[in-house]
Amino acid sequence: MPVWMPVVAIALVDAEGRVLLQQRPARKHHGGLWEFPGGKIDAGETPRDALAREIAEELAIQVKPCDCAALLLAEEAREGQPPVVLMLYRATCWRGSPDGREGQTWGWFTREEARGLALAPMDRELVERISD
Ligand SMILES: Nc1nc2c([nH]c(=O)n2[C@H]2C[C@H](O)[C@@H](COP(=O)(O)OP(=O)(O)OP(=O)(O)O)O2)c(=O)[nH]1
Question: Taking the model in full, what pTM does it have?
Answer without folding.
Answer: 0.96
